[in-house]
Amino acid sequence: MKGTPFKTDALAAALALLALLSTLPAVAAAWQDEPPQKTGAHADAEVERGRQLYLRGENARAVKTLGDAANRLKTDADAWHYYGLALNRAGKSKEAVKAFERAAKLRGSAGDRAALSLALLLSGRRGEAELEARRALELDPELPDAHFVVGMTLFAAEKFERAIEHADEALRLRPDFGAAQYLKGQAVLYIYADESDRVALKYPLRPGAEPAQRAAALGAREREFAPLVARMREAAARMEEFVNSQPNHPDAPAWRELVGTLRVYGRERR
After folding, report:
1. By C-alpha distance, which of 166, 77, 76, 161 is closest to 121?
2. pLDDT at 168 over 80
3. Distance CA 254, CA 260 (A)
4. Contact, 125 vs 152, CB < 8 A?
5. What number is the average pLDDT over the span 120-136?
6. Fewer Cβ in 10 A, N or C end of the chain?
7. Of residues 55, 51, 76, the one with CA closest to residue 66
8. Is pLDDT above 90 for 162?
C-alpha cells in the first residue's frame, strides 16, 4: 500500500505472523497446563510422570513418556491431551493434531477442541482451526485461546476489526496473553494501511496545488486519522507494558519491534 511498506497481502502477512508466533516460546508452549476436567495427579503412574516432565519443561522425555502411555491406554483422554501438549511444545504440530483429535473424539471438551484448534492453526490448516475454535467457544465462551485462534483466522481473511474484537476478548480473559496483544497490534497496523489509501483518495494532494490547498488537504487527513493514531498509540502502550513487566521474557524482542513500528506509523501524518 502507498506509504505503508509493512502492508502486503493479508493472507501472506498472516502466514508470516503465524510463522513468527509459532517460534515464540509463549505460543509454541501449551495453552493449558491442565485438561479442564483434571485436577491433581493422574491415576496412571506413567501419565502422571509424563505430565510432571511436561510441566518441568523436560519436553523430549515428556513426549516419549506420554506417547507410550497414550498408546498403551488408548481410551484415556487425559493421556492424549497431555501428549498433544508436549508435541505442540516440541514444535510437532502435525503430530499434536492427531493426539488432540483423539482426545476430542474420546471426550470432546471445550479444552480439547481449543487445543486442537491451535495445533491445526500451527499446521497451516486455518479453516479447520477456526471451526474447532468456534466449536470450543460454543461449549465455553470464556476460552482465551479459542478467541485467539479465531482472531488469527479473521486476520488472514482481512477482517481486521473482527480480529481485534477476538484479541480483546482473549486479553479480557487473560490479561497477560502476549500473543493476543501482538495480534491486536498487527491488526491495527493493517487498518491504518487501509485507511491511508482511503484518506489519500478522499483528500488528494494534486500536482501543482497551491500551498493553502496542500495545507487544507493535509489538515483534513490529520483530523480524519486522529482516532486511528490514538488507537495505535494505545496498542503501542499496551505492548510496551508487556515488555516493561517482563523485560527478560523470550518474546520481548518481538514485542519491542512491534512497539517501535506502531510508534513510527502512529506519528506519521497524511
Report:
1. 166
2. yes
3. 10
4. no
5. 92
6. N
7. 51
8. yes
How many other β-carbons are positioned within 10 Å of the β-carbon of residue 194?
16
Asked whether the predicted pLDDT for residue 44 surpasses 60, the reply is yes
Which contacts of 219-227 are long-range, i.e. CB under 8 A and separated by 24 or more positions? 221/269, 221/270, 222/269, 222/270, 224/195, 224/199, 225/195, 225/199, 225/269, 225/270
Other residues' Cβ atoms within 10 Å of the Cβ of residue 29 = 15
Which CA distances in Å does 227 have to 2, 230, 232? 20, 5, 9
Q: Crossing angle of helices 178-202/252-267, nearest 10°?
A: 20
Q: Bigger pLDDT: 101 or 230?
A: 101
**Residue 74 pLDDT level (bands cut at 50, 70, 90):** very high
Residue 205 backbone dihedrals phi, psi, to 5 degrees: -100, 95
Q: Are 195 and 225 in contact (CB under 8 A)?
A: yes
DSSP state of 244: H
% of the chain beyond a pLDDT of 90: 40
Is residue 80 a contact partner of residue 102, using CB atoms and an 8 Å limit?
A: yes
pTM > 0.85: yes or no: no
Q: Which of 252, 234, 247 is nearest to 185 (CA)?
A: 234
